[in-house]
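Subject: for your reference before the review

Hello V.,

The reviewers asked for a structural picture of the protein, and I figured it would be easier to keep everything in one thread rather than splitting it across files. Below is the amino acid sequence we used in the manuscript, unchanged from the supplementary table.
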Amino acid sequence: MILTPTQLAQLIAQARRDAPNETWGIIGGKDNRALEIYPMKNVHAKTETRYVADPQELLQVLREIEDEKQWDILAIYHSHPATQPYPSPTDIAEAHYPDSV
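And here is what came back from the structure prediction:
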């Protein structure tokens, strides 16, 4: 997936802003090129170590990406402010979009 330097800076700024809580979002685009970053709200009860979507916000963003813009979900990202920067067993078990990174 190709991110611009501005998009990468946006992801880092989001993680820093939301620390010490996990932050997350969706990257939409075409042909492995990121076209828009969608920072998402973390509504999990334990935001320091987990994240979960607000169902209405998630549905709205998925509709915009897939239906309105006809883009792909390139990635679902989240931060690990309190743990190592590798997918946890929970991350792997809850990865529901195998075609995204």
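For the response letter, the relevant points are probably these. The first strand starts at residue 24 and ends at 30. The chain has a mean pLDDT of 91.

Happy to draft the paragraph if you're swamped.

O.
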